[in-house]
Amino acid sequence: MSRELNRRTFLARSAAVAAGTAAATALPVTAASAAPAFTQGGKRPVEVPDVAVRPEARKDPTEATLAEAVTLMRHRALTAAALVEAHLDRIARFDGTYRAFNATTADAARAAAKAADRRRTGPLAGIPLCVKDNYFTAGVPTTANSFIFEGFVPKYDATAVARLKAAGGIVVGKGQMGPLATTRATSPNGTVTTVNAWTPQDPSVDPGGSSTGPATAVAGRMASSSIGTQTGGSIVNPSNQQNLTGLKPTMGRTSIYGVIPLSYTRDHSGPLARDALDAAVMLAVLAGPDPNDPRTLGLPAVPDLVTAALPVRKKGKVVLRRATTIGVPPDYLTGGQATVRRAFLDTLASVPGAKLVDVTYPADWGLLTGTFNNIRLSERTEPFLPYLQRDPKLFGVSLLSWLQGLFLSGDEWLTGQRAKHHLLREVLDGVLSKCDVLLQTGPVPFDILGLPELGLPIGFAAAGANPAVPVGTILGAGPYEEDRLLEVAAAYQAVTDWHTRRPADPAPPAAAARSAVVPLRLTPEEAAATSA
């Protein structure tokens, strides 16, 4: 489909979503309908291709990518029961340190693995997955890590969860998250819980955003892949911080039905995975229309995401599947990660088909992506007004960011909406008119607009006393062009090995206890300042 048609469709859908916000933000009240599971957009079957399996993955299945695990199971070199048990063993041994899960489903996972070994059904058959705790899960608590939903047990699965299960995926637990998806993962009172899997004894190292439980679960080899949500960076940021590949699709490409809302016009669901191919497989299963989520209806067909994530070689050399112009913004090589980013640009420029160009931001870029971003607060506050009126303490450490939404006037909200439409023109008619893919130093501009983003690892750098913490980058593209992002990521990952590196196991509990630092606790002001 042409970029112009994609653009027209996206603009029409964005306007419709904005108009229907008030009616659509309510929590779901009916079960998700039967969801397509084995096709990309209801057409092409989702098939995981055989891949070369690394020696590390043959020795330890928790080292394997999703595609490697499927390849091993397909050729009877691994059983689903063994794969799931290996991940459950790591949860039992290490999650006391990582604190990536706030609920585990070991018995159900073991039963599902045995069933998968008897009869493989679906592209994800036997794959252990972590689900962020704001997705409805039938019979399993869904709390959004908040006092408001404490003790809530849904009777049905969110559409995304239903699709993963229908494709054979096995949920091993619910991922810890920021309270109501606003900050890094903490307890509702602000005490930091989940740590970065690369620095388990230093909780001060940022593990990403509110999807840090799902990210740490995958990085710590306690799940093969996971799903999170993104409103202000919480898929790509945890991926960047923990050496993963995270893909936030275009608004509406995946359903958010059965997800406890934060901001209806900005909430996205998507995968946090180990590489581009795994992310593509996960998104291919998740994507497609859902009658319960009007944002998903009437969109362009889902492209062949799995093929897009397979590297192309000509005469033994990796090349881009399509010639791609990659925009480099003026601030890309600033800050402490400039050396790693420069090396990334050099590597990317050496891939045939990649063309790097400098792009400039409009003069009002900072205003459009900064000050006017506050209009999101009133949208998140409106559906939760009854809880604010009943007992503000239910919001715990994140209360200030919810109260801020009460103080935005109607004219400020309307001005912010006009600013959003102006930003959309600046992006579609400005920076993206000069390139196919845009490198970014932060996720917010494309989050505001609902455009797709992909985060991928590009190296390591020192952080405080830690000599090697993952560094990632973010790629953004035009509406419904997730395949273009995957093509670039697949080519880069075919010529580098950053994405194959795993963190060392944390210290045994006794040693960890002797060296533990005082637990960090976010203040309400810190929570508001870092809120999604």
Automatic annotation (TrEMBL):
Transmembrane feature ranges: none
Keywords from the UniProt entry: Signal
Segments of this protein annotated with the region Disordered: 198-217
PROSITE patterns: TAT
Signal peptide segment: 1-31
Keyword Oxidoreductase in record: no
Superkingdom, taxonomy of origin: Bacteria
UniProt xrefs under InterPro entries: Amidase, Amidase_dom, AS_sf, TAT_signal
Statement: the UniProt record of this protein carries the keyword Signal: yes
Residue intervals of the Amidase domain: 83-360
Protein name: Amidase
Organism: Dactylosporangium fulvum
